[in-house]
Design a protein that fits this description.
The protein is of the alpha+beta class. The chain contains 10 helices and 18 strands. Among the domains are: 174 residues, FAD/NAD(P)-binding domain (3-Layer(bba) Sandwich); 98 residues, D-Amino Acid Oxidase, subunit A, domain 2 (D-Amino Acid Oxidase, Chain A, domain 2, 2-Layer Sandwich), CATH 3.30.9.10; 52 residues, no CATH class. A hairpin with a 5-residue loop joins strand 12 and strand 13. The protein binds flavin-adenine dinucleotide.
């Protein structure tokens, strides 16, 4: 048997990536296995906010909001290359909440956690600011506050790059197909997968990995699949918590306004949607709809419905002068939130906080307890780093007492040598520059097909011309 790993992480979304980085940096032998591309699950389908969650105050989630607000400052400091401060305007028109309530929420938002670089909130007369100009009814009161914005998939990749530098073994397109106890270790069976649009032969796919590996501890960071994975491997127990899966869709539409600020729109049904600047377009989301599909079939099995697309257009049309119809939608994307199930029936009220569940099928006093298997239920992109730190400090440290201290709050994430801002049109790069970048993504960032580059290593997807797409695909074919 090959030397067992200390830690095997199943799932290469933001939570798996954050744990891999933290654990490798503390000296553990780490392997991370992802069945598709890294960040191909929920972690590339988010609203991309690093935020406290103003709306969660309504449900008295003060602990989660405080933790998340504080994380904005940390992530701004360690990843300024992909995290930036974003100004939000709240037009207060036909709002389901009284203005005093929103102002009270903003006061708490300003004061629940220490702010260093993030400005506080303010009241606005929208008629007197350019923020009111694109609105149908600018002659109203509004409020302004700040959160942060991040390129979600790149945050995953930067964490993985750092994890690899610190010794972690990382494999995309490697699915875990079985997980079973082997004395005081876990035995993990791995099956290589083909990318959805394979431009290369399976042999060229990735560095070989043994079909079977062993690990002293396993983290199940499979997001929406966390429960089905336990079920498939017969590791569900009567006390395992349940997940609620909630689908959320975004639409990308022709630009509704100039400026690099966002809007927080309160809808008559009490839901809130966000509107963001998105290069030459506007991004809007999200819906919240119970997901009753099979998480094992994601991301292919999840799509924005016509109803969701129409709902978002109607919401935009209530506020903006420029009207949008579903026919105007340039692109959409959809993700599934894995929410730790609590007593709430209304999906928008279920907590966005995470829960760490240790597998146990025997009493703690049993002479031969199972090796550590930790499952992550719920969470946000915003809290991935504190989640990883908690996993290390509270759960892995007792098992690996020699590990190093917490370190990720100070250590900067790596910087990509190429400019990836989505507002630089890919067609402005020369053929040679594109070739160089593709080579970089393939050799340094594990890209296995054109889609890995166009939708996750970069957000060029909807901006790239057919000829650029073909150039990138040809580069994979040529190898
Ligand atoms: C619409 C929407 C908007 C959101 N907006 C925000 C936001 O603005 N800010 C914020 O902080 N949070 C936001 N979130 C929440 C956030 O996106 C998620 O909590 C987070 O991305 C979950 O990350 P994860 O790593 O747990 O799961 P995922 O990113 O889904 O990663 C799990 C991975 O496990 C892999 N996997 C599954 N089974 C196996 C297997 N057998 N073998 C190997 N790999 C496997 C999957 O392929 C997947 O890549 C949003 C979520 C949604 C849906």
């Amino acid at each position: 048997m090959l030397e067992p790993y200390d830690l095997c992480i199943i799932g290469g979304g933001i939570n798996g990536a954050g744990i891999a980085r933290d654990a490798a940096g503390r000296g553990l032998r780490v392997i991370l296995l992802e069945q598709n591309d890294f960040a191909s699950g929920t972690s590339s389908a988010s609203s991309k906010m690093i935020h406290g969650g103003l709306r969660y105050l309504e449900f008295y989630e003060f602990g989660l909001v405080r933790k998340s607000l504080a994380e904005r400052e940390v992530l701004l400091k360690i990843a300024p290359q992909i995290v930036r401060i974003l100004k939000f305007c709240i037009p207060h028109v036909n709002a389901p909440r009284p203005a005093w309530m929103v102002r009270l929420g903003l006061f708490l938002y300003d004061h629940l956690a220490k702010r260093r670089s993030i400005p506080g909130s303010a009241i606005l007369n929208l008629a007197q600011t350019p923020l009111g100009a694109p609105l149908k009814n600018p002659d109203i009161q509004g409020m302004m506050y700040h959160d942060c914005w991040v390129d979600d998939a790149r945050l995953v990749i930067l964490n993985l790059l750092d994890a690899e530098r610190k010794g972690a073994i990382l494999r995309n397109y490697c699915k875990v197909v079985s997980l079973a106890r082997a004395d005081d270790l876990w035995r993990i069976t791995v099956k290589p997968q083909m990318p959805p649009a394979p431009e290369i032969t399976p042999e060229a796919l990735s560095q070989p990995i043994p079909e079977m590996i062993h690990a002293r501890a396993v983290v199940n960071a499979t997001g929406p699949s966390v429960q089905s994975l336990l079920e498939d491997f017969k590791l569900l127990t009567p006390t395992t918590p349940r997940l609620t899966l909630v689908q959320g869709s975004h639409i990308i539409v022709p630009k509704l306004y100039d400026g690099d600020h966002a809007y927080f729109l309160q809808l008559p049904d009490r839901r809130v949607i966000f509107v963001f600047p998105y290069g030459p377009y506007t991004l809007c989301g999200t819906t919240e709809k119970p997901f009753d599909g099979d998480p094992r079939l994601m991301p292919q099995g999840v799509q924005a419905s016509e109803e969701e697309r129409a709902y978002l257009c109607t919401a935009l049309n209530q506020f903006f002068k420029r009207q949008t119809s579903p026919q105007d939608i340039i692109a959409d994307y959809c993700g599934v939130r894995p929410l730790f199930q609590d007593a709430h029936q209304d999906v928008s009220k279920i907590s966005r906080d995470y829960h760490l569940e240790i597998y146990s099928n025997e009493p703690h006093t049993a002479p031969n307890p199972p090796p550590l298997l930790l499952s992550i239920f719920g969470g946000k992109i915003t809290t991935y780093r504190v989640l990883a730190e908690e996993v290390m400090e509270k759960i892995l440290k007792p098992q690996f007492p020699h590990i190093g201290p917490s370190w990720t709050a100070q250590a900067p994430l790596p910087v990509c040598p190429y400019p990836l801002e989505k507002n630089k049109n890919i067609d402005e790069f020369s053929d040679q520059e594109i070739r160089d970048m593709v080579t970089y993504f393939r050799t340094q960032e594990w890209a296995k097909c054109a889609d890995d580059i166009l939708t996750r290593r970069t957000k060029w997807g909807i901006l790239a011309s057919q000829s650029v797409r073909e150039t990138i695909s040809r580069m994979f074919n040529a190898s």
